Amino acid sequence: MEVGPTTHYMMGGVRVDAETQAATVPGLFAAGEVAGGLHGSNRLGGNSLSDLLVFGRRAGLGAAAYAKAQPGEPRVEAAEVGRIAAELVGPFERVQGENPHTVQEALQDMMGTYVGIARTEEDLRTALEAITRAALERRESRGAHTRVEYPDSDKHFGTVNVIVRRQNSAMTVTQEPLPELPAELRRIVEGEV
Ligand SMILES: Cc1cc2nc3c(=O)[nH]c(=O)nc-3n(C[C@H](O)[C@H](O)[C@H](O)COP(=O)(O)OP(=O)(O)OC[C@H]3O[C@@H](n4cnc5c(N)ncnc54)[C@H](O)[C@@H]3O)c2cc1C
């Protein structure tokens, strides 16, 4: 049996409204591992599968309410669908240029080598993608993110989300404050319960 480390779970993902699972792109809803913000820095065992049931339902209800609120039936141009479909499958069919499977393998190798649980600034700068930009900004250790140079957790990073956006063709990294934790949850997080 071959044994090796693998990615277990993504803590982070698409920003969504907690009640409806609506993303910031109108009409797009996300639930499950692709949606960020639910589990904080370390998902507890078993919580992903219950997350799918609870937030999958919310996403379904949110998407249905959004669709019902639209005036009339949406019109989709067949030619536009065809163009976008061709653009998506194009890389898999071309005979020249970068092969998507090679890109995926290279990304997997790079993330496995430089962006494991214990990461340093030098490693993160070598593998500079959206995930590593957020990890560089987080100069602390928390949950599944261990910055070797910053072994302690910093209370400040418990009060913000690190947001990576692509604006024009550049990526930006910002910190945005989290809403106040409800008192009953704060008691659990702070270990009183
Ligand atoms: C080894 C391991 C053990 C785990 N053990 C547990 C556990 O014990 N308990 C627990 O709660 N959780 C566990 N998890 C986590 C849990 O399994 C996942 O978080 C959960 O299955 C994610 O479900 P999802 O529907 O959000 O995403 P996924 O199951 O990843 O579904 C996403 C789907 O989208 C498809 N897709 C991707 N891109 C495209 C595209 N461009 N177009 C169309 N389709 C696309 C994919 O093929 C996939 O079918 C474990 C995970 C791993 C890796």
Description:
- By secondary structure, this protein is of the alpha+beta class.
- The longest helix has 22 residues.
- It is 38% helix and 10% strand.
- It is globular and about 55 Å long.
- A hairpin with a 2-residue loop joins strand 3 and strand 4.
- The structure holds flavin-adenine dinucleotide (FAD).
- The site of flavin-adenine dinucleotide has 11 residues, from helix 1.
What pattern of helices and strands is seen along the backbone?
A: HHHEHHEEEH
Major sheet strand order: 1-2
Provide the structure class: alpha+beta
- Helix content bin: 25-40%
Bound molecules: flavin-adenine dinucleotide
Gyration radius, to the nearest Å?
Answer: 20 Å
Distance between the termini: 42 Å
Mean pLDDT value: 92
Relative strand content: 5-15%
- Quick one: overall form? globular
Q: How many E-type strands?
A: 4
Low-pLDDT runs: none
Number of helices, counting only DSSP H or I runs of 4 residues or more:
6
Biggest sheet statistics: 2 strands, parallel
